[in-house]
Design goal:
19 helices, alpha/beta, Arc Repressor Mutant, subunit A, about 400 residues, binds magnesium ion, 3 domains, binds adenosine-5'-triphosphate, 7 strands, Rossmann fold
Length: about 400
């Protein structure tokens, strides 16, 4: 059994062939489309749909073609400060280029190396590196020793370092930023709009570096890259990563378990998961524990039991915190949407006797929290079907008690 809740890599990666092929060929042979009109690629899709898995798959394939890749995620930062972020990225990029630069030391130690020694280390790097690159590097390795840091110039140095390294080592670099919009949540320093502006103007000058980003936060993406007048309007070639089809779900389950899945059981899983691979993997793991592997016959009944069990137990752990982060009014709206099957501010406002403007305002906040999604003008849907079913299950239990 190889069901996993982590990004799917290697043999665990199922499907997405056409998306991956298209993106890889776009990266390997950037067409005029990418170089003259669009400056980067953006993978957009719901939470847990498999964006990171696609990024990792692409990295794996293009690295084999000699492209240097830098993967940075805004998701797993323990320290959300801009300083910490820059330090992490500098460590990653220097590790990526370590052999090309002739670095023989531990990159992390450079941040604590005494100034004089650092100077001579940098001077002794591979010959032919420009003075400008060395100055940038020095700034990036020493900025946090200063009492007052000008994060603006630190970011400018970092943004230009990527392409300088690529150019001066005669390599191509794929700069991958996962949860891209999360850059705006970094604390203590430059205002986020200014940060994005600076980044954009740096990327526009890139010659050997291609930008690939991913994000799932729809309102953030709208505001930053999709909406007319947004900073990155028209900047990215956008690729939507969609939910799994029935065939993909079948393949994931059958490949990882070695068993055939009957059609009715498959339908049930499709219905429940909404094609979100994360839940397919989760249910797969649970089916394993329910004797699915040893049983010869595997039917809809076992799947129903597993789904119910999931809603009663695992889902509590997954969703309880998300629920607790909602205000009372947001909870009220959520329950109303689910219990009464409502999806417009006007119908919700009538039901809970609250002004339409306020309902709309709360829905926007809930959208920002990636709980609801604005599908059509004035229509909001609960984004995650499993979360919706979990809340439904809670409501039913409350009614029974
Ligand atoms: N192509 C795939 N084949 C099999 N499983 C997949 C695939 N893509 C994603 N998954 C599974 O779905 C889950 C979520 O994957 P991943 O982390 O790549 O999604 P994501 O969209 O980046 O999520 P998030 O929104 O949390 O960043 C994981 O359990 C992963 O194993
Ligand atoms: Mg991800």
């Amino acid at each position: 059994m190889a069901f996993t809740l982590l990004p799917a890599i290697g043999r665990d990666f199922i499907g997405r062939k056409s998306e991956v092929d298209r993106l890889v060929s776009l990266i390997l042979k950037p067409t005029d489309l990418l170089y003259e009109e669009k400056k980067g690629i953006a993978l957009l899709g719901k939470r847990n749909v498999g964006k990171t898995s696609v990024l990792k798959k692409i990295i794996n394939l293009v690295e084999k073609e000699g492209i240097f890749c830098l993967y940075v995620s805004l998701d797993d930062l323990t320290d959300n400060s801009q300083q910490n972020f820059v330090k992490r990225v500098v460590i990653l990029i220097l590790n990526t280029y370590k052999s090309k630069l002739g670095f023989e030391f531990n990159v992390e130690d450079l941040f604590n190396t005494p100034m004089g020694m650092l100077d001579s280390l940098l001077k002794n790097l591979k010959r032919g590196l420009s003075e400008e690159l060395i100055i940038n590097l020095k700034l990036l390795l020493t900025f946090d020793r200063e009492k007052k840091v000008d994060m603006n110039s630190v970011f400018i140095a970092m943004f230009s370092l990527f392409d300088m390294l690529a150019k001066e080592t005669k390599t191509k670099l794929l700069l991958v930023i996962d949860e891209f919009c999360g850059l705006r949540n970094l604390k203590d320093g430059v205002d986020s709009n200014l940060l994005f502006e600076k980044f954009k103007s740096a990327v526009l000058k890139y010659e050997n570096t291609l930008l690939l980003v991913a994000d799932s936060n729809k309102p953030a993406c709208e505001e930053l890259l999709l909406r007319q007048g947004s900073i990155f309007e028209g900047f990215f070639h956008v690729e939507d990563i969609s939910s799994f089809s029935k065939e993909h779900i079948q393949k994931t389950l059958e490949k990882n378990s070695g068993k055939k899945i009957p059609e009715n059981a498959l339908e049930l899983i499709l219905d429940f998961t909404g094609g979100i691979p994360f839940y397919v993997q989760f249910i797969g793991r649970m089916l394993g524990r329910h004797g699915f592997v040893s049983a010869n016959s595997f039917d809809q009944k076992i799947v129903s039991e597993v789904i119910q069990d999931f809603l009663e137990q695992e889902a509590n752990i997954l969703f309880r915190e998300q629920m607790n982060r909602l205000s009372n009014k947001e909870k009220l709206i959520l329950v109303c949407m689910i219990e009464q099957d409502l999806n417009t501010p006007s119908s919700i406002s009538k039901e809970i006797n609250y002004s339409q403007t306020n309902v709309r305002r709360f829905l926007s906040i809930m959208e920002e929290k990636e709980l609801v999604v604005n599908t059509k003008r004035g229509v909001f849907e609960i984004q995650d079907n499993v979360f919706k079913l979990w809340v439904k299950n809670l409501i039913n239990k409350e009614v029974k008690n």
